[in-house]
Amino acid sequence: MQPARYHLVALKMKGAIPALATLLLCGCGYIGEPLPPLMNIPARPGDLIAVQRGARILAHFTIPAITTEGTVIKKPVTPELRIGPKPAGQFNPGAWAATATPAGQPAVENSVAQFEIPVASWIGRDVALAAKVTGANGRDAGWSAPVFLSVVPPPDQPAGLRAEAVPQGVRLTWRASGNLFAVFRRDPDQKDYAPLARSTNPEWIDTTAQWGKLYSYLVQSLAKAGEGEAQSDLSSEIAITPLDTFPPAAPVGLTVVPSTTSIELVWERNPEPAVTGYRVYRALANGPLAPLADTREIPNYSDRQIESGKVYRYAVAALKSNGKEGPMSTPVEVSAP
After folding, report:
1. Are 175 and 136 found together in one domain?
2. SS3 2
3. How far is residue 320's CA from residue 279's CA, in Å, rounded to a whole number?
4. Structural domain count of the chain
5. Is the pLDDT of residue 7 over 90?
6. Coil, strand or helix: which one is 24?
7. Closest alpha carbon to 120 in 153, 158, 88, 145
8. Residue finishing a domain among 129, 150, 171
């Protein structure tokens, strides 16, 4: 019986060896070359924006939150912006940066670096601006794509901005040289100003303003600068709550047609949205025009209170919801049948 027991033990031992090898491989994990240490280089800025406003160049970009390896930056970084002449040929970051001028320390808010650069020494020149961010270890990913500007004398800042209610809406006027201006408006439910329109004259009528609502306005001069535009400093703010105190315009197109038992009047509808109806005037021959009847928004009326053979004159005036009555239309004369 000894040989049989020995044979069984040997078989068990042979099966344990592969299992043990598998256990060792699974338990210890993969053994390979060690990974290189992270470089921790901040990513290159990708949203640099620059514009001339008055006597300054305003530039800003978002400070990257990750490295070139996609890891989160945990240590402080240093944002940098430089300005220099635009190269005549292809932009070479290293050669350009060697002679470019640092833009100074930025103001940083919500991870956005903001720079202000005086334009005095750059007027009449084409310039390039580029940015980079250096990590705490002194490493950087290089300069961003450049932004090119043509620097011009500061456009004239608008002065004396005024706002007044007119029948069409809000009329803005200001003083400034130039032939192109940007108008900005802040509505009652808005926190910030939004572009509203452009004007080639120092005035603008905001036909979209609604009566009884508070609006604030700003104006800015614009000047051609190379392929772009330079901006002036913004004007002082003006606020207004326009009120509709204006009468409607006189109706036009009054036509008077006699029929067997009446005289029919039709005219063109007044396009003003506040018009609620019309007042019909009538005169006998050359007598004075006197109110005959009020109608609703439909621009027609049938006069059945007529006498055969008599001559009548008619005119129509529009009525608004603010209680104002407009001027009368041109009178029209007709003979009753």
Report:
1. no
2. helix
3. 11
4. 3
5. no
6. helix
7. 153
8. 150
Closest by CA position to 174, among listed 111, 217, 229, 130: 217
> Each residue of 177-190: pLDDT tens digit?
999 999 999 998 89
How many Å is the maximal CA-CA distance in the chain?
A: 150
Domain shared by 319 and 261, yes or no: yes
The verdict on residue 101 lying in a domain is yes
Residue 319, amino acid: L
- Domain extent, residue 166, equals 159-240
Are 49 and 147 spatial neighbours (Cβ–Cβ below 8 Å)? yes
| Cβ 290 vs Cβ 307: under 8 Å | no
The CATH code of the domain that includes 168 is 2.60.40.10
How far is 256 from 292, CA to CA, in rounded Å? Answer: 15
From CA 201, how far away is CA 110, in angstroms rounded?
Answer: 38
Specify if 102 maps to a domain: yes
Chosen domain end from 94, 115, 150: 150
Q: Is 87 left (phi over 0), alpha (psi -120 to 50) or beta?
A: beta
DSSP codes, 177-216: SSS-EEEEEE-TT-SS-EEEEEESSSEEEETT--TT--EE
**Which CB contacts under 8 angstroms, 24+ apart, belong to 98-105?**
100/128, 100/130, 103/59, 103/129
The string of pLDDT tens digits covering residues 49-89 is 999 999 999 999 999 999 999 999 999 999 999 999 999 99
User: Is position 311 within any domain?
Assistant: yes
- CB environment 227-238: b (16+ within 10 A), e (fewer): eebbbbebbeeb
The answer to whether 133 and 62 have CB atoms below 8 angstroms apart is no
| Full-model pTM | 0.76
State the residue for tokens 């240590």.
Answer: 75
The count of residues in the chain is 337
